[in-house]
Amino acid sequence: MSGEALANLLNETRQFPPPAELAANANVTAEAYEEATADRLGFWARQAERLAWNTPWEQVLDWSNPPFAKWFVGGRLNVAYNCLDRHVEAGRGDKVAIHWEGEPGDTRTVTYADLHKLTCQAANALTDLGVGAGDRVAIYLPMVPEAAVAMLACARIGATHSVVFGGFSADSLSNRIQDASAKVVITADGGYRRGKPSALKPTVDEAVANCPSVEHVLVLRRTGEEVAWTAKDHWWHETVETASTEHTAQPFDAEHPLFILYTSGTTARPKGILHTTGGYLTQASYTTHAVFDLKPETDVYWCTADIGWVTGHSYIVYGPLANGATQVMYEGTPDTPHKGRFWEIVDRYRVSILYTAPTLIRTMMKWGDEIPAGYDLSSLRLLGSVGEPINPEAWMWYRQHVGRGELPIVDTWWQTETGAMMITPLPGVTATKPGSAMSPLPGVVADVVDDQGGSVPNGGGGYLVLRDPWPSMLRTIWGDDDRFIDTYWSRFGAGAGSGDEWIYFAGDGAKKDDDGHIWLLGRVDDVMLVSGHNISTTEVESALVSHPSVAEAAVVGATDPTTGQAIVAFAIPRGNADAEGEAGERLIADLRTHVAKTLGPIAKPRQIMLVPELPKTRSGKIMRRLLRDVAENRSLGDVTTLQDSSVMELISSGMQGGK
Ligand code: 6R9
């Protein structure tokens, strides 16, 4: 990264120590770092003891065949037993596992005993349908408790689940079912989105028509809308809810495949990321305990992600349930029926830990400060962020307007591939800096390297890598070991034919500040090369968002005859900003100057467009590739992963209208 561009985020000097009371009672203290440094594998072995094992492991890590890791070799356990039975057996069956709220306002309170019972029934029903250990089951459901039940029932009988986000098309669903040769699909008639029923079953019918591996389809009734029926279909209420509630969980090998999750595929063919049992649950459980400082007796936790993403897997289902947490699950969108819906939910359930995404925080900024101010958010004690780099101004807004100016924020960096959090503050230990994910967790070894794979000094930038295997790492890409090696291990180190060390390439740009803290700079594919300088999209975006009139920004490099690439920015004005007509022109001029002032003249955008929305993936990440197409006057590439396809029409037509 160029010196000029680095200046901005490195100039971010604000720092916030943990609240004294939290630090004094924190689940994890600074000693954890020392312990893990002294004996990394011993540290992870101690975290694995958080779980109930039927057979103890003989070896913590087998790395004799890199990059194929085996953790807790020889150990056996059942994931569903760890998430449900052991809490019920310990007398906590009446504790609320899920406060569920449907989008239309219907609610359910699901205790650990309820969840256990339903999961046993679903496990029996799946077994009756011929599903056994090692079979694959596709799950295509809205955000209802049965989504967690379906996953846990698979885990209980050793079937490998593949959850597909309910917004994906028949084609995407069909490809994923075929890639995994799923035997059963679990779906619903539909779910509620944006104030109306949104059907799922017709998409499944279309997808399954091309999937000979599928023998049965289990259909949950949620909306009550009419559905077409095929010979493969079974109603959930006639199959699961009539099954026996008795089921004894069998232990599986620590390396038994737990789930496949396809990465969103913004660029290439989706990759089926494979996670296994013991290591995955160990790290999901430990990070929930350590990073959220979760106190299962008193906290009410809410992760706003969808179960179709890895965040929903690790931090709605496996991590929180393994810890016996009480959590909120919400079915719908944040602005239905009004823009205060999220804060109303926090208020109603007295949520104490909130885990959400920068895209949502920036959306809330755009909607205006008065909306969260209208609710009682005093139950909150810890805030989390995941999914994209969080711009310092969005971080400050989150702390100020949601966190009363005093709550700690954990900005957690991780990926579908890493399975669980990797780089994040510890809330009782770390003095946080707005915009930085700070440090690798105890037991995790991350670094920033240059083109040659050499570790960069403090103050330098380059590529984020992970140096040692970690328990919840992906084990391979389903059915494609070569692609696994090629994608993640052949850029640096032994996999690239140099050195003995196997180095995992995360695909993200990053830098170390003068204290050695890590700042994420976005996907390396998005880095711009302007007149020979590498400039990160994240830094220019953060500079734009630091302007009081900008809520959200996306920046791309467009081919330019003189500079190689030129910076083209798309900015969403804040709710209160005057951005029409001449005022808009003035704002654009002002923004260009503002970026040049904060980052240096090299980073001044050639062009800035004021737009009402940005193209995002269904998990809320900005799709810069499409904006690059617009900026370079190309026809748009693949838009199937786009959340709202009308956004691109709006942006393209605005673009023709001038600067
Ligand atoms: C958990 C999840 C992974 C990619 C990752 C990075 C971006 C996630 C981030 C972050 C900066 C954070 N990312 N968390 N960037 N700071 N705290 O989102 O998984 O959907 O696989 O995406 O998301 O670019 O490489 P996944």
UniProtKB/TrEMBL annotation:
Residues 90-470 form the AMP-dependent synthetase/ligase domain. Catalyzes the conversion of acetate into acetyl-CoA (AcCoA), an essential intermediate at the junction of anabolic and catabolic pathways. AcsA undergoes a two-step reaction. In the first half reaction, AcsA combines acetate with ATP to form acetyl-adenylate (AcAMP) intermediate. In the second half reaction, it can then transfer the acetyl group from AcAMP to the sulfhydryl group of CoA, forming the product AcCoA. Residues 30-83 form the Acetyl-coenzyme A synthetase N-terminal domain. Its cofactor is Mg(2+). It holds the Pfam family ACAS_N. CoA binds at R193, R194, G195, K196, T311, S531. It comes from the Bacteria. This is Acetyl-coenzyme A synthetase. HAMAP family: Ac_CoA_synth. InterPro entries: Ac_CoA_lig, ACAS_N, AMP-bd_C, AMP-bd_C_sf, AMP-dep_synth/lig_dom, ANL_N_sf. ATP binds at G387, E388, P389, D411, T412, W413, W414, Q415, T416, D508, R523. GO terms for cellular component: cytosol. Belongs to the ATP-dependent AMP-binding enzyme family. CDD domains: ACS. GO terms for molecular function: acetate-CoA ligase activity; AMP binding; ATP binding; metal ion binding. The modification N6-acetyllysine is found at K621. SUPFAM superfamilies: Acetyl-CoA synthetase-like. Keywords: Acetylation, ATP-binding, Ligase, Magnesium, Metal-binding, Nucleotide-binding. Its EC number is 6.2.1.1. Mg(2+) binds at V545, H547, V550. Acetylated. Deacetylation by the SIR2-homolog deacetylase activates the enzyme.
